Amino acid sequence: MMKFKPKTVYLPHINYTVKFRLFKKPPETISKATAWIKRDDANSCTIFLPAKTLPSSLAHEIMHAIQYICIDRHMRIENEIEHTAYLMQYLLGQALGYEWVK
Q1: What is the widest separation between alpha-carbon atoms in the chain?
Q2: Do residues 19 and 45 make contact, with C-beta atoms less than 8 angstroms apart?
Q3: 77 located within any domain
Q4: What does the DSSP assignment read for 14-36?
Q5: What is the 3-state secondary structure (H, E, C) of 43-91?
Q6: How far is the C-alpha of 51 from the C-alpha of 57, rounded, in Å?
Q7: How many domains does the chain have?
Q8: DSSP label at 96?
Q9: Is residue 102 part of a domain?
Q10: Hey, which of 53, 56, 80, 89 would disulfide with 49, CB 3.0 to 4.6 Å?
Q11: CB 9 within 8 A of CB 62
Q12: CB 47 within 8 A of CB 21
């Protein structure tokens, strides 16, 4: 398990924001969820995670964020193999608190 802290990540090259927030109570439609994602609008989504979460749950929800990004930016995910891999790497690193040094 990893300790999770809330964070907002802006992706300027596609004008999209992914917010990572602490888990509260899941929506009634997914009452047994241990993590979930909500599409806020065409430019953002919010991932909800418990304070202590499994990296696999984080990766699962980030994949949904990438799916929303592809839908909202009219990209075919199967044509974005390298781009989506970089998005996964960057979003996962940001959520885990990694810092990239130039």
Answers
A1: 44
A2: yes
A3: yes
A4: TTEEEEEEE--PPPGGGTT-SSE
A5: CEEEEEECCEECHHHHHHHHHHHHHHHHHHCCCCHHHCHHHHHHHHHHH
A6: 12
A7: 1
A8: H
A9: no
A10: 53
A11: no
A12: yes
Residue span of the structural domain in which 55 resides: 2-96
Q: What's the mean pLDDT in 37-42?
A: 96
| Locus of tokens 């907002």 | 8
Instruction: Tell me whether residue 101 is in a domain.
Output: no
| Sole residue written with tokens 């990893």 | 2
Plot region of 78 (φ>0 → left; ψ -120 to 50 → alpha; else → beta): alpha
Pairing status of strand 36-41 against strand 44-49: antiparallel
pLDDT at 28: 82
Q: Does the pLDDT value for residue 47 go beyond 90?
A: yes
Asked if residue 41 belongs to a domain, the reply is yes
Q: Copy the structure tokens of residue 75.
A: 């990209």
What are 56's two structure tokens? 């696999």
Is the pLDDT score of 12 beyond 90?
A: yes
Kindly list the strands in the beta sheet with 36-41, ordered across the sheet, starting from the edge strand earlier in the chain: 7-11, 16-22, 44-49, 36-41
